[in-house]
Amino acid sequence: MNSKIILVLALAASAAAIAGEETDSDKIAQYREMISDGNPAEFDEMRGAELWKTAAGPNHATLQQCDLGKGPGVVKGAYAALPRYFKDTNKVQDLESRLVTCMTTLQGMPEAEIIARPFSSETKESDISSLATYVVGQSKGVKMAVSVKHPKEKEAYEIGRRLFSYRAGPYDFACSTCHGKSNVRIRMQDLPNFFVKKDAQSAYVSWPAYRVSQGLTRSFQWRLNDCYRQQRFPEPKFVSEATIDLTLFLAVSANGADYAGPGLKR
Amino acid sequence: MNAKWIIGAAAALTATSVMAAGTNLDAKTAEIMKRDFQDKGIALASRVNQDELQTMCSKYVDKLPVKLKAKMEAGQLATMKYPADGKYMGNWKAGETLAQSGKGMTWSDKADEPAGGNCYNCHQLSVKEIAYGTIGPSLLKYGVQRGDGVATQRHVYEHIYNAKAFQACANMPRFGQMNILTESQIKDLVALLLDPESPVNK
């Protein structure tokens, strides 16, 4: 308990220090170094691990038989191969959409209820977001190997690639407007170029992540959602095909790298 | 002879089916965009509908064939609206405030709040502001090199109003054309870039 409070206080102090000065990459790197033995995302991982093995929903079932692609109940390494095609749903699914499948089929939870709280806020945590944090943590150090062998995976990749360059909205922005060139930044924020393997890898494997400025662990679905907000787009529906196809395209771009999340961001 | 003919026909068929698959995927991508995005705040779902320029820049990933590029730019230039009073320069101080603001048009912005120019997000503008982005070129000392003659003022106004008239798939938003900024706000930004007293030229 005490160590938790101390960690939170240290974080708050560091966050304030960062906010007070210019938030350049060096300072963030130092900060990461400083708390490298304790990413606050661990609290969300623990919350997710607890939810995973706690009986819930109308069926009073746990998620321990959930098949994330490596067989029922196998969590280790599952995230490093997602999104992927699932035979039972006949769909390509990312982690969160697969969690929705497990929560509805195993626990009997209504989909609408799960989707109603996709992301955590200052006042209330999101169960599906914490579950995702737990699952990704079980792939730490596992090599990213997302498949495009199945025709539906191949199609998802091709559509994801198109979505990445899809310009629209009042600002004419696409993902590629900010993430298609090397060594550029918005204000002081460095931007990864997803057309360059090394950049794509280091960016992708560091999400989901604890956001110091928000005091919350953020899922990959959240990452895309907030990108689209800044792109001046309307909101992508949670676990929609658009978000899954785009995620698969980005994940394939990161193939070969060791998964390193949950990460830590400003 | 026969074998050659068969290979030729097969190759033609494959090429056709690859092209057809590409077209189908373009169509499917557009369908997914229309289906999978929803209204939130001021950001309505209809924003995913592309105009011709957005469609082409997406399709060619910003590298348009030469003829198409010229056609797109001419189309954008044709719809340029100029100030009725013939004046292009406003107040550089108001321009600096605008340039600093990254607000506007996201679903977390309010309809009644004025949009910012987002300039520093992508451009270096003054020596004083070190937190500048680098997606666009540095505009430091922009007016020092070019002066503030009317032709230059007009060119800068046009570029802010609709940069796509000069570079079809430019990253820069069409601030006038898309009603992001008002005529008077654009004039303030012209002044920020060209007024000798502006921090850009100090």
Describe the structure.
The complex is a heterodimer of chains A (266) and B (202). Chain A has 266 residues and is mostly helical. Chain A has one domain (39-265): Cytochrome Bc1 Complex, Chain D, domain 2 (Orthogonal Bundle). In chain A, 45% of the residues lie in helices and 9% in strands. Chain A is built from eleven helices and eight strands. Chain A has helices at 2-20, 25-34, 41-52, 95-105, 111-115, 127-137, 151-164, 175-179, 197-204, 220-230, 241-253, and strands spanning 84-86, 91-93, 184-186, 189-191, 209-211, 216-218, 235-236, 263-265. In chain A, the strands form three sheets. Chain A has a three-stranded mixed β-sheet. Chain A is globular. Residues 1-22 of chain A have low confidence and may be disordered. Chain B is elongated and about 75 Å long. The model of chain B has no long low-confidence stretch (mean pLDDT 93). Chain B has eight helices and one strand; from the N terminus they run H-E-H-H-H-H-H-H-H. Chain B has helices at residues 2-36, 52-59, 66-78, 92-100, 119-122, 142-146, 150-161, 183-194; one strand spanning 37-38. In chain B, helix 4 crosses helix 8 (183-194) and helix 7 packs across helix 8. At the A-B interface, helix 7, helix 8, strand 3, helix 10 and strand 7 of A face helix 1, strand 1, helix 2 and helix 5 of B.
